[in-house]
């Protein structure tokens, strides 16, 4: 049953479900409505990412309209998102989708990729970080960092996920070597996960030239992040106590800024969708509303993605998200229109012990070919080493004779 949940202010007039059957966003994101992606004079705007020859996740996901198996029942109506996806998080089966590889702006859902990059980097979660003016002055949503404050990496990750703090995003990017280094690492990880529609152009998700992802890619990224026990723990928190900072000496009469109990921006978690494991919200004027999250009922975990959508006066975005989760849980377990592929992540970034394993891809021949090639190269190299050792031994025998 669909749970009706409250959320951000709604538009006064209903918004029709966008028609994407003609693939308007296969190559590039929808046109910007503001100047956030205008490049500096003398700079060149990034070109769109190439479209893969083979559709990642299976041929059926090359479609741009609604992709669904009638055996799963009717797809929820009154969905305002241009792109969305429903998948079984454990098996990797894509249950249904709309424009799954359409390219949209992620807004703050890209923070999932930043969080996973930080966790994969091996940064000590107890490491103490002192903020800079660039951190606490970051545009948009904020955790409330301030001068003289001291925050652990765990604090920053929690603020990043729970309240979508852009100040925390900037501070974490510094820990990865600076914004440019952080973006390079984020985009490398996206490539490792086969998220080939994804380019992070800002660590926080603020719109920037070249930024893009897709419903399919967000599902890959979130699924990988949920395999990390620390990420799964943080994103499940409805609240988190965030440290304060002392009075500012440069502000006359200022007093101490005490810590506070921050509250998640995920209303599906906050207002009790059954079995909600957590999720990440996002919004900018160009991205519109975005969301990625998952819930568990019984032994089944369902993941959803919503992109480029809105609440309306009588059709809340959280209600739309709940209806997609309900649809996933109602669908028979054998339904599959595509596959969330398993990425080629380094051994150091392997899933956390005890987490649900990702199934190997059955529909990504490129992955299987690359794995076979690596095995063949390794075998040839091993044989070469054996031959060299044998030759050296023969030479030693001759010298001794």
How is this structure best summarized?
The chain is α+β, with helices and mostly antiparallel strands.
Topology, element by element:
Elements: E1 66-68, E2 83-88, E3 93-98, H1 111-121, E4 128-129, H2 133-136, E5 151-152, H3 153-162, H4 166-175, H5 179-192, H6 215-226, H7 229-235, E6 239-242, E7 260-263, H8 267-270, E8 276-284, E9 288-297, E10 300-309, H9 317-330, E11 338-339, H10 365-400
Helix pairs in contact: 1-5, 1-6, 3-4, 4-5
**Can you identify the CATH class of the largest domain?**
Alpha Beta
Radius of gyration: 23 Å
| CATH third-level topology of the largest domain | Beta-lactamase
Helix content: 25-40%
Main sheet summary: 7 strands, antiparallel
Number of strands: 11
Q: What's the helix count?
A: 10
Order of helices and strands: EEEHEHEHHHHHEEHEEEHEH
The low-pLDDT segments are: 1-13, 348-401
What is the overall pLDDT average? 87
Structural class: alpha+beta
Instruction: Say which CATH homologous superfamily of the largest domain is assigned.
Output: DD-peptidase/beta-lactamase superfamily
């Amino acid at each position: 049953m669909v749970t009706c949940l409250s959320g951000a202010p709604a538009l006064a007039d209903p918004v029709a479900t966008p028609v994407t059957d003609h693939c308007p966003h296969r190559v590039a994101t929808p046109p910007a409505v503001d100047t956030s992606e205008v490049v500096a004079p003398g700079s060149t705007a990034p070109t769109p990412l190439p479209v893969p020859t083979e559709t990642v996740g299976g041929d059926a996901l090359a479609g741009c309209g609604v992709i669904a198996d009638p055996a799963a029942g009717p797809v929820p109506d009154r969905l305002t998102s241009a792109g969305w996806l429903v998948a079984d998080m454990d098996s990797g089966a894509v249950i249904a989708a709309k424009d799954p590889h359409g390219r949209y702006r992620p807004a703050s859902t890209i923070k999932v990729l930043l969080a996973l990059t930080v966790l994969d980097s091996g940064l000590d979660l107890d490491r103490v970080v002192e903020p800079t003016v660039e951190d606490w002055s970051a545009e948009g949503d904020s955790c409330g960092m301030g001068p003289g404050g001291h925050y652990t990496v765990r604090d920053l990750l929690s603020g990043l996920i729970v309240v979508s703090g852009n100040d925390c995003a900037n501070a974490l990017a510094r820990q990865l070597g600076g914004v440019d280094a952080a973006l390079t690492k984020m985009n490398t990880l996206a490539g490792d996960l086969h998220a080939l529609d994804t380019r992070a152009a800002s660590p926080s998700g603020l719109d920037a030239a070249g930024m893009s992802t897709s419903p399919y890619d967000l599902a890959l990224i979130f699924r990988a992040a949920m395999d990390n026990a620390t990420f799964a723990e943080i994103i499940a928190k409805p609240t988190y106590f965030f440290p304060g900072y002392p009075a500012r000496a440069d502000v006359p009469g200022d007093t101490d800024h005490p810590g506070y109990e921050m509250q998640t921006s995920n209303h599906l978690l906050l207002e009790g969708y059954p079995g909600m494991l957590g999720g990440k919200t996002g919004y900018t004027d160009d991205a519109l509303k975005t969301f990625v999250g998952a819930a568990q009922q019984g032994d089944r975990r369902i993941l959803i993605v919503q992109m480029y959508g809105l609440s309306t006066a009588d059709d809340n975005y959280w209600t739309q998200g709940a209806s997609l989760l309900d649809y996933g849980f109602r669908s028979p377990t054998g339904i599959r229109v595509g596959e969330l592929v398993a990425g080629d992540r380094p051994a150091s970034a392997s899933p956390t012990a005890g987490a649900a394993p990702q199934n190997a891809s059955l529909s990504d021949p490129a992955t299987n070919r690359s794995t076979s090639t690596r095995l063949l190269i390794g075998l040839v190299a091993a044989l070469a080493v054996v031959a060299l050792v044998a030759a050296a031994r023969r030479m030693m025998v001759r010298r001794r004779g």
